[in-house]
Structures are given as structure tokens and as C-alpha cells.
Amino acid sequence: MKRKACAEVGIKSFDIDLLEQVSEAHLISKVQELNAMTDVHAVTYVNTSLR
């Protein structure tokens, strides 16, 4: 639903799926990758185990 809403207003959206037991180092690495991307302006965390 959020992906569709983003598309409707012209916002690029993508997912990064991580294991529930992701290491702190791997998580920090992913955040650093996102920070380096000039077209990324926000990061949203969604806990899919609650769905």
C-alpha cells in the first residue's frame, strides 16, 4: 500500500530486507550505504514480524 502511494505522488521507494538477527555491523553498513545515496531523503523501519 505504501509503495503504491509513493508511486502515485512520484516518490521512489525500495525495500531492504534484513534478517531478524542482523548483526549491528551489517545494519550500520546498510545505514551508511543509504546515507551515501544522494537520492535517499528518509529511511523508514518496518518490523514485518508483527504483521
Kindly describe this structure.
There is one protein chain. The chain is mainly alpha-helical. It has one domain (2-50). 41% of the residues lie in helices and 0% in strands. It contains two helices and no strands. The protein has helices spanning 2-9, 24-36. It is flat and about 35 Å long.
Structure keywords:
51 residues, mainly alpha, 2 helices, 41% helix
Work out the strand percent: under 5%
Choose one word for the global shape: flat
Amino- and carboxy-terminal Cα gap = 14 Å
User: What multimeric state do the chains show?
Assistant: single chain
The gyration radius over C-alpha positions equals 13 Å
Spell out the blueprint of helices and strands.
Blueprint: H1 2-9, H2 24-36
Please sum up the structure shown.
The chain has helices at residues 2-9, 24-36. The chain has 51 residues and is mostly helical.
